[in-house]
Design brief:
By secondary structure, the protein is an alpha+beta fold. 16% of the residues lie in helices and 39% in strands. The chain has a 6-stranded antiparallel beta sheet with strand order 1-6-2-3-4-5. The protein is globular. The protein starts with a strand and ends with a strand. The model has no long low-confidence stretch (mean pLDDT 87).
Length: 80
């Protein structure tokens, strides 16, 4: 079963695992990797700003806010 999900589609407290990186710009990928967003890492959506940007996620025990444009580079698979 394919449980692919985009960060923009996730609801608060929903979790997903990073399965790859899209065709985004390389500097975004490097930035995400430097934040610890590596393949196989589980993330949890915490909340979205009132106007929808940025989003706050929990990863590796800390909270991280990302712009949606940067976060959409992540390829995610929803956890059950």
């Amino acid at each position: 079963m394919n449980n692919k999900v985009k960060l923009s589609e996730m609801k608060p407290e929903q979790t997903a695992v990073i399965t790859g990186y899209g065709d985004g710009r390389k500097e975004y990928r490097r930035k995400l990797l430097s934040f610890g967003l590596t393949m196989g890492t589980e993330i949890t959506m915490k909340k979205t700003a009132p106007l929808g940007d940025p989003v706050e996620i929990s990863v590796r025990g800390y909270s991280l806010s990302l712009r949606k444009a940067e976060a959409e580079v992540l390829e995610l698979e929803a956890c059950k």
